[in-house]
Each structure stands twice: as C-alpha cells, then as structure tokens.
C-alpha cells in the first residue's frame, strides 16, 4: 500500500516471555538495514498505552551493545501492557488520540508484539488511521508462552517456558525420589496457560530422561475427576513409592468450574480472572486422603522469565519473528501475522508464512486429543515428538558476581509534542 510516512513504531503487549526482546531486536535490526523504506524507528513504552500517553523511545540509533543486551533480556525491555482499547463506539477519543500521536510522529508502520488479543488491537488501530486519512501498515509479531496461537506450529516464547517447566519438574522428581521413603510422596507443579494445557504437557518431557517416571499430567483440556485422580495417585504410590504431578492453572471440574481462582480484577469493561492455587488444592487433597507428606509449587512468573534456560530453537523463532514482520512490510503486506510453518520434522525445519491478523485473532489452539491418553492424565508419544525439538539448544549467558548479567535497559524518551493524556483502564 502507498505510504505517507516511513517511520516505524514497535510495541510489546500482554504477558512477556524470556525471548520477547529477541523479537524486538529482530524488528530494529531488520528495519535499520532498509533505510530506503524506513526512516525513524520508535518503540512505545507500555504497548498501546504508551502510544496513547506519548511515551516514545527513539531506537533508530540503538548501540550494538544495547542490541546485544536486548537479545538476552527477559521480561519486556520496553515494558508490556495489559490494556485493551475500548470499542470506537464506547470511546472514540482513544482512537482520535492514537491518530494524533501517529500523525505527530509521522508513523507509517506499526509492529505489535503480542498474543491473540493484541492482534485485534493492532488491526483496530491501523484500520481507524487508514480510514481517517493516515494510511498505516500494521504487522503482528507473534509471542505467547501459552502456545495457543492458532495456525502456527508453535508460538515464540513457548519453547523456553517449556524447557524451564520440564527442567524444574525433572529436578523436583530427583528430589522426591531421594526422599520418598521417609518423607514426601507427592509433589505437584502448577503451569500457566489459562484454558490450554501446552505448558502442562511440557512436563511430560521428563519421560525423555526418566522413561518410567511416576507422573500425572492434568491439562486444562480434560475436566478433573477427583475419584479417578486419587485412584491413580494411589496406584503410583503403591507401585513406585511416590508420584509427581503437573497441572494446568485453568483445570476445571466436571461442571466446568475452575478448581482454584486467585483473584478477579474488575475494569469498567471486563472482569479478568487471575488463576492460581490449583497445585496447592491438589496437594492438600492427596495429603488428606492418604495421610502422607505432600508439596506443591507455583513457578508463576519464573516459567516465562528464565533467561538462563532459554531454548536456542525458541530464541531463533523469536528473533526471526521480528525480522519476518519487517519483511512482510517490505513486501507491501498489511494486516498480517507471520506464523511458523514446518517444512520437515526430522530434524525440525521451519519458516515463517503470513496469515491474516483477524483470521488468527479470535482463535485459540488447544492441545489436540492425539497428544493425550484416553484417561486424560498422561501424554502420548506424538506429544513428545512435537515438544522435544522446541526445547533443543542452549544459549550462553554472561554472569556477573555469580548471577546472570541482566538488568533493566535504560532508554531516553523523546520530548512530548502533544498535550498530556492519561489512558484509563
């Protein structure tokens, strides 16, 4: 499409990952290589909220040192947001403000790094600006540890989180094995993912190291049956002496109710349910039923921020996601999301292909039935075949005083040009 501007703005949205900043580096480096197409390169602090509030960073001349640090940085270097735009009918002022900011900074390209919901936001923004005389090219940059991005083989961010989950469960299994005769007999780990169980089934990767591990896997895709669960725990303790378990935070009972809810956050438009605590619930259930010592753990943010356990495969997917987004813009595309397409599986060979943003925005990819056993408490060999390549490879990390040398990057904000605006959630 023809452009009135060649300036770029990049922003990060939603829950972060250990490799989201590799995508940021991919966008910045690729855009810098094409000065004939892109002029200034900006980043917004706090995603679309930063656009509204005109918190803008000029990253056009980001130093090589900062780019290198960006590539290993967990969290969101430009600070991600959980902020959904209202509909135009409810709040036209938000859209008018975004258009005002984009005009002020001569923005012609918008790269939004996030999950499904972020893609809706990106498309809304681009459509409104274009309809009001400021043509925009809008490209999504894929990211989510939940792995629920439809039409993509996997999501950048998932492989590293899966590697952390499987490693932690493996180490905890060795601990439990060494103590079960006189101490703890049941340990349960809780994985993120809301209503999908991809990170939960990643716990099954332990089977690649300990094939006969006494492991229960409880993904969100299968409803929880207390009697069947306790019977299976009993069998494993009786035959193996102990039982390890991994459970989805979004596990539901046979009536579709969450087993555990941490909190409900109310906004003027939505009620956001914060999940958490199901591992503790199951641990208490087993302790009460069998009169044995149990333990539970909730890795929570740890599983999405473990820069010391990044999967090389996942890092490459994240870095190339940023580059693929810029390439899509160079190819004249608009309203697309580059997703991962597998060319071969042995070894894993993949590439990025572009799909329509709105085609993927409202879809959620669940763990397929063929990855789960009939009783819903274990995974199949097909699941292991899918998961194993995604966690392969390690990345070297610099250490300082015995700790990973990671700390918040400092950026200089451009002087604001417009009147102050406060975005209300």
TrEMBL record:
Active-site residues, record numbering mapped to chain: 146 (proton acceptor)
Enzyme kind, highest EC tier: transferase
Catalysed conversion reaction: beta-D-fructose 6-phosphate + diphosphate = beta-D-fructose 1,6-bisphosphate + phosphate + H(+)
Keywords: Cytoplasm, Glycolysis, Kinase, Magnesium, Metal-binding, Transferase
Annotated positions binding Mg(2+): 116
Domain Phosphofructokinase: 8-328
Function: Catalyzes the phosphorylation of D-fructose 6-phosphate, the first committing step of glycolysis. Uses inorganic phosphate (PPi) as phosphoryl donor instead of ATP like common ATP-dependent phosphofructokinases (ATP-PFKs), which renders the reaction reversible, and can thus function both in glycolysis and gluconeogenesis. Consistently, PPi-PFK can replace the enzymes of both the forward (ATP-PFK) and reverse (fructose-bisphosphatase (FBPase)) reactions.
Name of the protein in question: Pyrophosphate--fructose 6-phosphate 1-phosphotransferase
Organism field: Thiosulfativibrio zosterae
